[in-house]
Fold these 3 entries.
Entry 1:
Amino acid sequence: MKEKFYISTPIYYPSANFHIGHCYTTIIADAIARYKRLTGYDVYFQTGTDEHGEKIEKKAHEAGVTPQEYVDKIIEDAKDLWKSLNISYDYFMRTTDDYHVRRVQKIFKKLYEQGDIYKGEYKGLYCIPCESFWTESQLVDGKCPDCGREIKMVSEEAYFFKLSKYQDRLVKYYNEHPDFILPLSRKNEMLNNFINPGLEDLCVSRTSFKWGIPVDFDPDHVVYVWVDALSNYITTLGYPEDDTLMKKYWPADLHLVGKEIVRFHTIIWPCLLMALDLPLPKQVFGHGWLKIDGGKISKSLGNYKDPREYINAYGVDAVRYYALREVPFGSDGNFSEEALIARTNSDLANTLGNLVNRTISMSYKYFDGKPVNPKVLEEIDDELIHAVSNLKDIVEEKMNGLKVNEAIEEIMEVLRKCNKYIDETTPWTLAKDESKKDRLATVLYNLLESIRICAILLSPFIPETSEKILTQLNTKQTDYDSLEYFGKLEQDITLNEPQILFNRIETKC
Ligand code: ME8
């Protein structure tokens, strides 16, 4: 039986159309999911939308539509965006779906009945756009530390979750699972800023607005949006009504999130799971932010373009590649169209595109598009064959450590070696000498085989391009097992005619 791998993105707020920041998390999750599928896992990749809350209620009101109408429109657009980015999710969850609403109500009731949720009064400082409560000491200049906007004092009768009860068990779990929170700096941040000062019980219901999941035994209250949202990771698997999928996929292997919501995923979520007596996720990775001109890309600031404009202008794989390659995974990075163009030109057009085009064109010119390997090897071949043969293991190591940009760089490095190999072996010179025909065939075979291996390893990152390359090679050796050793490219095939993969993007200046 295949080993399972459950990976999730956050479920995003459909308060406005999604921007390149949402694409960033989703593309990375997709690349990891595709990589795991390639390497033989039974992958469950989930994304979706977090549709309740005061912010959405307000937005819908401003737009003169119901909250449901408001979110339905954005979800349609989100699904179209994920399609245009080739996102291979297995399930798109929506918190307004009936089953989720019902299951969250059951979770809430269970916690109430067993005494982990109790009724009290809440007074606190609340940031509406972030849907977060803050303590006085967490504010920055009296404003929300996340978004910098005004916060308001809220006072209401409310239900509370006994977060404090789980503090010691949470710390123990952190200590026993050093890879639970990555990068490590985020774990220290959680301990120093939130856990060590002491966890307070969490307010988990609201009465100040209506757009949420009603507490079924006290319908003036709606469930706090973060309890509603975090539960998504298990309600979609049937919890608490059906345990078939829970048995198969829970606990999640990886919750991929942006750094600002690590605290919800590594404090509130594990404590809720402990209260429900369920295993905790294996890992939460909090990646950095993509910024524009050094500031956060923000739906509410509206300082961004529709990501489809980039896809239409430069192609889906240029956008995917840029998101995956440009920023060291975990750190913040700047998003700029100039950098996207520069990346596409240098790596995709020059390094990859040129290599594939030159190699297939020469195979046509000298051997009518038929790969043959007479194995007239020379010393210069060793380095290339060695690098290509080791690539699978190197990529595996990098991907297991979630060093996605480094995994890609390793493949690019091998592709650069291939280009260097062409410059050094000069096939066009060999072609002038009939006695060097077998050597020429070997050189081209080595290149074609290197391209095949790199194309398979690139498939999680730039799937459309990978498929185009493998189609040009006309090979059936396209699965992970075919990477077992160098030399699996068939010799009884005819390559398809060369096609340009990426045109260089000309810039105005
Ligand atoms: O937080 N750079 O939804 P959200 C990188 N509904 N990633 C970014 C980004 C940026 N500039 N902007 C957004 C929520 N993201 C909750 C989640 S999960 C149970 C509930 C990505 O619409 C990043 O993954 O505000 C971030 O964590 C997420 O979008 C926030 O999406």
Note: The longest helix spans residues 337-367.
Entry 2:
Amino acid sequence: MDWIKEVEENVDWLSSIGADPAGGMTRLLYDENWLKAQHGLKDKFSELGMEASFDAVGNLFGRIEGSQFPNETILSGSHVDTVVNGGKYDGQYGIIAAYLAMKALVEEHGQPLRSIEVVSLAEEEGSRFPYAFWGSKNLVKEARKEDVLDIADTDGVKFVDAMRQCGFDFDDEENMREDIKAFVEIHIEQGSVLETEGKSIGVVTSIVGQKRYNVTLKGQANHAGTTPMGYRKDAVYGFSKICSAAIDKAKAEGDPLVLTFGKVEPKPNTVNVVPGEVLFTVDCRHTDQAKLDQFTEQLEAYMKAIAAEIGLEIDIDLWMSEPPVPMDKNIIALLEEAAKKSKANYRIIHSGAGHDSQIIAPRVPTGMIFVPSIQGISHNPAEATELNDLAEGVKMLAAALYELAYIA
Ligand code: HGY
Ligand code: MN
Ligand code: MN
């Protein structure tokens, strides 16, 4: 197989679905680009001779039946959604690599002993609705209807309506599939460790824990000219005090703690009006759950204190809280073995980004492979990985899937 050509063609094809005129890619859960991508992948899986099917919520599976142990399934894949103006590798590279690895394995070795499936997971980023990991959480039966029944995107489109308009609905199946024996996800590193150290492959040991909040500060909109400074209930002033002090505290805490105020929406966002309201988001991560909890508890207390000091109302909505998750020791060893066999220039590495693997790992033996990100850039149209590294990643994934699905 011409690995480089296949990777390049498939990344270019899938990236064209959701290419954003403002740069990069925007393909959000249940939007029209998302639906077009899932149906395009379904056709692709069928063309590759796979049995292609959706589950109730829109996760897409491509299956090659095993000859001897068909009820033992090795799963590989990643998420099909992107952030807004994101790159063209985060998520979708893991889907493309999985089906290309399966294609290469069948071409070279014929039918596997165990079944192999590629999965295009419906959503991981939490970029459209205040909910993340909808795809993998449904796969492992952790998703709860009540968590999404009343949520909507920033245009007011309700989650449930968007899902049903795409022809999908809640998955009322109680129990998780029992046939999935392993999950391997390949993903770009989204950091610069591999590139800095000149490595082409990362074998992931653990994934960071993270918490995400929507915070609303409510003060009083007022006239910018006639409202003396001492009379103001300025929501942006409150946000800026919180943001500045919290970032300084995070820097003092030091790596691997990270803190991001990614979205800030003042209202009415007008030059000559004292802003009466601001919605902002918080994303805080750490490899150690206790330290993550301690920092966020202090942060929540500090936000409330600043709001009280300025006379603002505050609403703190913690809508995501995922613990740090170790990868499966046996899968790590298998990935290291595959890296050694394919003479890959690899290193063991921890993930500062969240991944579907952290949702699946507590239920299924799970491992991750990283390929380098150029200058560590991600969640940005400039996200890029050398074609050779992308191809090496597919070969590494194929070697791992061979060990899992072709060896008795
Ligand atoms: O935000 C993350 O860590 C991932 O890219 N969703
Ligand atoms: Mn991402
Ligand atoms: Mn991702």
Note: DSSP finds eleven helices and 16 strands in the chain.
Entry 3:
Amino acid sequence: MLSVIVPTYNERDNMGLLIPRLSRVLESESIPYEILVMDDDSPDGTCDEVQRLSAEYPGARCIKRMQDRGLSPAVMEGFREAVGDIYLVMDADLSHPIEVVPELYRAIAHDGADVAVGSRHIKGGGIEDWPLKRKVISWGASMLARPLTSCSDPMSGFFAIRPSVIKGAPLRAKGYKILLEVLVKGRYDKVVEVPITFKDRELGESKLGSDVIVNYVQHLMWLYLHPGSAPLIKFLAVGGSGIIVDLGILTALILLIGDDIISLPGYDLKYVFIFQAISFAYATTWNFVWNRHWTFDARSAKPSGQYVKFLTVATIALIIRTALFYVAVNVLGFQGIPEYHISLLAVIIFVTVLNYLGSRLWAFKK
Ligand code: GDD
Ligand code: MN
């Protein structure tokens, strides 16, 4: 059974269009359904209208919400109320094409998708009647979310999911962007996108004002900090902090005990090497802990095995870095001012990518 969740605020006039059309489409496709209108006690009597329509369309009912108002909380409550095997979220104002509802349903029911998104930004999709300003804002907003998900339209308010995707997921009802929240925090393998043309509403007015932008930026910040999201960015941040730890410890060791030892004849190099090994071990452990808990959110596997693999990757990367750099400077003779630095940078980027892939695909593989 499909549970269609429709958040509403002052959408009375749209109910008489949406509910009959949606019911007809789903019945003609023999898809069992319920329609849950999640209404924030709209003063225009949206709920009464749904009540009235439910005589003819018994699959539809309205849930009047008196607390915790807002689009996302309404959708989340819809997830809790729904009894279907697939949840679908759509707007009430007919912006989302009703004919696509069965396609989103089938993507999950028959094609093995966990999440199906009605997308404006893939081939065949688009937006009708939006002023350029809104298109630009929408595009900019999608770009800021690019590293968080591979979905091309994570701002879409039109999507379907399996209940297991959000079961136990720490969803916050703060932002308006429920789908983005689900994509970052949910558990899923396959996402399918179905192209849609988004039509601006004809009846009633948009509720999403300028505070939405501020809210969105805050929401993004939380999502970027969330364990496991945008792992490459987190990996680089952790690596950067690891360099500080490494240099900090090395400097401390040299300053605290280095002087006495280094002044002994013949011992300097040996001890600097030992100091380097100590600071390398510390920094690698520091990186390991942050990457395990935060970058890759890989706490479900045993840490010991991960640690050995992570150290192996780090050590191999260190050896490769040393070797490549040796070749660049001593064999290829890159010793001049720009060549030296360019080759150093190239080697570091190459080895960082290796480190990342080794960590992601091997050490912290889930
Ligand atoms: N319960 C409840 N409470 N519903 C709300 C609230 C609220 O505070 N605010 C808005 N809604 C409902 C509306 O009644 C409508 O059904 C739906 O949420 C979308 O609201 P609109 O006001 O029509 O938003 P929009 O058209 O500007 O934005 C749409 O497109 C965006 C993508 O550009 C929505 O689908 C957004 O989710 C989407 O990100
Ligand atoms: Mn709308």
Note: Residues 7-9, 11, 38-40, 69-71, 74, 91-93, 95, 138, 155, 157, 176, 201, 206-208 surround guanosine-5'-diphosphate-alpha-D-mannose (ligand 1) (CB under 6 Å).
